[in-house]
Amino acid sequence: MDLLQSVLMGIIQGLSEFLPISSSAHLVFTSNFYKVFKGIEIVQESNQEVFLDIMLHLGTLIAVLIYFRKEILQIIKALINGIKTKDFHSRDCKIGLYIILGTIITIGIAFPLCPIAEKLVFCPEIVGCLLILTGCILLLSEFLSKRQVAKKDIGLLSSIIIGCAQGLASLPGFSRSGLTIAAGLFSGCDRTTAAKYSFLLSIPIIFGASMVYPLIKIDMNEIITYNHTAILLGTIVSTIVGYLCIKYFMQFLSKFSLRIFGYYCLITGIITAIFFSVI
What we know:
12 helices, globular, mainly alpha
């Protein structure tokens, strides 16, 4: 791994984690395109690349924590107050409970899919097909959302549906933000509300994956041999790009639809599926 690869993947992660275009798919595509042009076999597995992927996700987690720091503190305070008073009816407290529920549902669905997700990293043509499906879901959610009155609050049913969507998004090619925002639209939320909840819901999952996964899957003695300069640089880049992406994506959603991202997923998925099928 070199500095160019880590910076490139940091940019890709920062952009694609929050845009509904599947960060996992784009990391798979970027890594495998890089291997193709470097003459490296796609099936070659590198624990260092897995660790870089984890650190890039940690970078985007930091971006979410910084951008939504006020909302996060309000939710934590509301939950603590709810526990003390045994009154969980405040809006922030309910959102906190919905995030906990959505996280539990996500884990319940994502955990059995982990072995499949790990294998798909080396099947970019299949990941491309899943990205095509993501595009179809985004376009369908926009179409159906126009036929109903949008609400500005997340409810119990919405949190369950969005949690299920986030669980399915553990498969590379299924965009986490895309599926969760689409699920929010399907359940009657407006785009901004769905996106905000989607980003908040990502915090426990990304944190868990970033902290727990290395302890279980990666040999700590092997980590000391990695290119830490490249990994740190990629993490910093993903944090900066991720923060800017959240900021401007939230502004975008207040004015425009998700159709452009739906078409992007369709086109990118078709191109990559064909490319990796014929090489």
